[in-house]
Amino acid sequence: MPHRDHDDAIARATELLARLPGLGPRSAQRIVLQLLRNREGLLEPLGNALVALREQVRSCSACGNFDVSDPCGICTDARRQRDIICVVKDVADLWALERAGVHRGLYHVTGGLLSPLDGITPEDLGIPKLLQRVEELGVREVILALDATVEGQTTAHYITDVLAGHGVATSQPAHGMPVGGELEYLDDGTIAAAFRARLRMDE
What we know:
Structural class: alpha/beta
Number of strands: 7
Shape: elongated
Radius of gyration: 20 Å
Helix content: 40-55%
CATH topology of the largest domain: Dna Topoisomerase Vi A Subunit, Chain: A, domain 2
CATH class of the largest domain: Alpha Beta
Distance between the termini: 69 Å
Largest sheet: 5 strands, mixed
């Protein structure tokens, strides 16, 4: 039987890991055991990586991406198309698009979707900031790569209405995006097909 302090440490680590998506108490406990069995190869490097994650990574003030610099590497990359912005719900969606290699413009991470019942407003999604960036950068197209859910489509149509009259085309991924689907869980091929066949929303 482990010492009480050790027992508390194990229980706390297990509790925190169990809060991660896709992990339950049993999976979390197995991870803790594996870490304890491999302290030098896994536990110590992971601990150092998590400290670096906390101290070095920040949210980009321009687009909302996570990076060690602010603005992030995507926003400061001179090779990116600065007249196209892709709007996504979450950084996980941004990473999915980068992994698929289908978008070479900039991004805007909303951090959520419009939901009056939950009190999520356009201001919470950074829509005023998006409009400001559109005007400052001379953006010609905004791609609304939001979830194919009621909330996602409501948010997409709201942004389309906000951008009306600003000379900006709005589009969204088409084929391969299942109704009710979430972007971060789609495979690269599906994302690429959807982007190539994106539909205009402002016509």
